[in-house]
Design brief:
Chain A is of the alpha+beta class and 153 residues long. Chain A has helices at 2-33, 40-45, 141-144; strands at residues 34-38, 54-61, 67-69, 74-80, 87-93, 105-112, 117-125. Chain A is built from three helices and seven strands; from the N terminus they run H-E-H-E-E-E-E-E-E-H. Classes of the chains: A alpha+beta (153), B alpha+beta (704).
Chain lengths: 153, 704
């Protein structure tokens, strides 16, 4: 009986230790891998603390700032807060999403470098699942109607 | 008309559910067992009523009856019939309706099959199932009512979410997921039934739900793989898993269900882990509801999270209620939940099962914490954060490789306790398999430590599991002179769960190999090509032929035709496309994949000039990806073997009898006592008892 309760005590201690160690590992893992979601303004106010940490930067593509080189696939644009405050230059390699346009909502994942350029590793265009009628100039057909043979309209 | 009929059916079903859920406990309390058929009838009636509502919805969808709110939301005249029908689960309300239907179906089947069983377990289980149905019925007449009236009636609708009508897998993945998710309500209901009836002492509920759990697990496994496949074929980034909250939501209950499949065996064989198993079953069920909450409440934005209003609160309330009720039941049964068995030796199969449970649970917590952390951080500290992929990968890789190793060790060990010789005889030979795959991994260029470990342990586990088949078959072959085919069929038939489990292990190994290879050996290139220009990745070359456009009834398509060039010859084409749906600003990428047994060539159209003068293409070479899909099939096949009815119909009894066979004393490892046919003690036909020797698994006798 005594041996039994002793054994039980050890088992409880062992389980507590295991759970503790695991919780500590989880905590450490989370601490190092949290990615903050910031607007350009919030990123800029962080100052030096904002350099070289993984960030999701969310905002608007500044009209007129998009430059894409088809050959080198070098994409540059600026992201601003909605309303225009704060501005962060973004560099990304790879092609932009097809409907990437001035003024649209965008989330870029990456790190803000000391050279004051945000190096994006991933680019997500915000879009909603809700239906809304396309505005003039937004009709996708207009983008490539030259490709469709035999449709005159 | 259909709308009102369906609406009434759902209202009546709500009343029927309440009646049935009340009548069973009252009948038991009052000792009026003659009332119980009423409760069972309520379960069947609920199924009929929800079926009427579901069919009414499909009819409304097909007839484009835009006066029904759900049809107005997801229907459109241009959508092809096939996608119109499957948009039953294309948005929130329809998916809740479909969920309720699957649940009603499970309930009716469970009750029908077990209706003659004496005792209070089944009536209470029926009550629990009706309780869950009640929750979904409330959703269907309240916040997720799909049959609201739309007035004035629109002439057309927007059609389903383009991502969901872009691939046939959308007809496969959601139903499988629901069958898996909802199937976990069955073991939960039986656990509740066992606790309410006091039958929790007999472990019978575990046996009664064995096939149901296995079936639900098989569906869930298939659903996860199908979801990965869909993501690979539709999203265009060339991956299949991103630790997206929605993927995690399907994976988290899978982990606890997998743990339960293993620990249930420990309870059946060794009368241990009673309380633990109850927790796993309840936990799995709650995690499926939590997963639905995460994906359906709009709390996390993703493809699956349909926007909604208050439905999230209903889910949270339901989860809290389930947790409180089951805690109270567990507390009320604490005396009966005492474990009677104990661990005899560290070198035993049950030890490996305990470790397996420990690691699977740790894995579950890791994914759960990573998934919920952003919600908690936002609620508590008001900051928006996300938990990056590195967290999941770093935390889960050690757990995954350990589980792969355990998958090889577990099957090799006997129950209770293994001798030193047994350990050497069983655990050493698979090392050869590990060595072969390690060398292979190094040769093909795997350099990460976890990648190499994954290859090595997969080699170990595959050898160990195949060896169990080999040992069993050769024992039958020598003992009874059975042909190899017969030996295989009888071996599996004698213990379907065990040998089906080994097949599932092989499937998991294939998946692991596919994941390890494709994640560590992937190479990709991206370039803007003019017609005639080429792009190469990992020794495979494509040449842009042209960029074209095409109108289809429900969408417009832009594609690039790329010729695959081998040794200067055109060996087929690959055509990544972009689909433009009306009313959607963004096109839906439609990558194209050319599979070979050793890997995929994956092409995605990234951008194009409207005049067709160039196209930007991403080309990815991903080794062994098809093995993941194949592995999924093998896992499902393993589950099917485990579910198939045993030829003798008394599997559990036979299994226990066989365990008692024990080891033949004094047998030298390596020498097979049964080398002379008939010389094995107990091999006399009809003796019934199994024979086991250190180098042999139990040989099961078939009735003469």
């Amino acid at each position: 009986m005594a041996a039994n309760s002793n054994r039980r005590r050890w088992a409880i201690v062992a389980v507590a230790l295991l759970v503790g160690a695991f919780a500590w590992l989880l905590y450490g893992g989370l601490d190092k891998n949290i990615v903050f979601f910031l607007t350009p303004n919030e990123l800029l106010t962080k100052g030096a603390a904002g350099y070289d940490v993984p960030v999701r930067l969310g905002g608007q593509v500044k009209p007129g700032s998009v430059k894409w080189d088809e050959k080198s696939l070098d994409l540059r644009f600026a992201v601003t807060d909605t309303g225009g405050a704060g501005e962060v230059a973004v560099r990304s390699t790879g092609s932009p999403p097809q409907m990437f346009r001035d003024g649209m909502g965008v989330v870029v994942e990456g790190r803000y470098g000391r050279d004051r350029v945000f190096n994006a590793t991933n680019l997500i265009v915000k879009h909603s699942n809700e239906y809304r009628a396309p505005k003039a100039g937004e009709r996708p057909q207009e983008m490539y109607k030259t490709l469709i043979k035999g449709t005159g309209s | 008309m259909t709308r009102l009929l369906a609406h009434d059916a759902l209202l009546v079903s709500l009343a029927v559910i309440v009646f049935g859920a009340l009548v069973a406990p009252v009948a038991i309390r009052r000792g009026r067992r003659d009332w119980l058929p009423l409760a069972f009838a309520a379960v069947y009636t609920n199924f009929v009523l929800v079926t009427v509502a579901a069919i009414a919805m499909v009819v409304a969808l097909v007839r484009h009856d835009f006066s029904v709110s759900y049809v107005a939301q997801v229907g459109s005249l241009a959508t092809p019939l096939f996608y119109t029908m499957i948009s039953l689960w294309g948005a929130l309300e329809g998916s809740i309706l479909f969920w309720a239907w699957v649940l009603a179906l499970y309930g009716a089947l469970v009750v029908w099959i077990n209706r003659r069983r004496p005792g209070n377990l089944v009536p209470y289980a029926a009550t629990a199932l009706l309780g869950v149905s009640f929750f979904f019925a409330i959703l269907l007449v309240g916040p997720a009512d799909p049959f609201l009236e739309v007035s004035p009636v629109p002439s057309d609708g927007p059609g389903p979410n383009p991502l969901l009508q872009n691939h046939v897998l959308m007809a496969v993945h959601p139903p499988l997921l629901y069958l898996g998710y909802v199937g976990m309500s069955v073991p939960f209901a039986f656990a509740v039934g066992a606790m309410l009836s006091g039958e929790v002492e007999s472990d019978d509920w575990i046996r009664l739900t064995r096939r149901w759990t296995l079936a639900a697990w098989g569906f869930l496994s298939a659903a996860i793989i199908a979801g990965m496949w869909w993501s690979y074929e539709v999203l265009g980034w060339g991956g299949y898993w991103a630790w997206d909250p929605v993927e995690n939501a399907s994976f988290i209950p899978w982990l606890t269900a997998t743990a339960f499949l293993h620990s249930a065996m420990v309870q059946e064989r060794r009368a241990m882990l009673r309380l633990w198993n109850l927790n796993l079953v309840v936990g799995t069920f709650v995690l499926t509801i939590l997963g639905t909450f995460l994906t359906r409440s709009g709390i996390i934005s993703s493809v699956h999270a349909f926007t909604t209003g208050t439905i999230g609160y209903f889910f949270l309330a339901f989860i809290a209620l389930v947790l409180l009720a089951t805690l109270a039941m567990i507390a009320g049964n604490s005396e009966r939940l005492r474990t009677t068995g104990r661990l005899d030796s560290a070198a035993s199969r049950e030890t490996v099962f305990l470790l397996n449970n420990l690691f699977l649970t740790a894995f579950m917590f890791t994914v759960l914490v990573g998934t919920l952390f952003p919600l908690v951080a936002e609620a508590v500290r008001g900051v928006k954060v996300s938990v990056g992929e590195p967290f999941f990968n770093r935390m889960s890789l050690p757990l995954v490789v350990t589980l792969l190793l355990l998958m090889g060790v577990g099957p090799a060990l006997p129950w209770k306790s293994a001798t030193r010789e047994e350990l050497r005889e069983k655990l050493l030979p698979p090392v050869a398999g590990a060595a072969v795959l390690t060398v292979l991994a190094l040769l093909v260029g795997v350099r990460s430590a976890y990648g190499i470990l994954a290859f090595a342990f997969v080699g170990y586990a595959v050898t160990a599991n195949l060896r169990e088949y080999w040992i069993g078959m050769s024992a039958r072959h020598t003992a009874h002179g059975e042909g190899w085919g017969t030996a295989l069929v009888r071996l599996v038939g004698g213990n379907r769960r065990r040998y089906g489990g080994y097949v599932a292990h092989l499937g998991v190994c294939l998946v692991a190999l596919g994941v390890a290879a494709s994640s560590s050996l992937r190479s990709e290139r991206e370039a803007t090509l003019k017609p005639g220009e080429t792009l190469s990745v990992a020794g495979r070359t494509v040449r842009l032929k042209d960029v074209w456009g095409r109108e289809e009834p429900q969408r417009s398509v832009v594609g690039a035709t790329l010729e695959i060039i081998e040794a200067g010859q055109v060996r087929g084409t690959i055509e990544p496309r972009m689909n433009f749906y009306p009313g959607q600003q963004q096109p839906v990428p439609t990558p194209d994949v050319r599979s070979t047994p050793l890997g995929d060539l994956y092409a995605n159209l990234q951008a194009f000039r409207p005049d067709g003068s160039n196209a930007t293409v991403k080309l990815i070479h991903e080794p062994l990806v098809p093995w993941i899909w194949l592995g999924g099939l093998v896992v499902v096949f393993g589950a099917l073997i485990g579910i198939a009815p045993s030829r003798r119909g008394r599997e559990a009894v036979a299994e226990d009898a066989v365990t008692l066979g024990g080891t033949v004393p004094g047998a030298v490892p390596g020498t097979v006592p049964g080398a002379v046919p008939g010389a094995v003690p107990g091999a006399v036909p009809g003796a019934g008892a199994g024979v086991a020797a250190p180098a042999l698994p139990r040989v099961r006798e078939e009735p003469a």
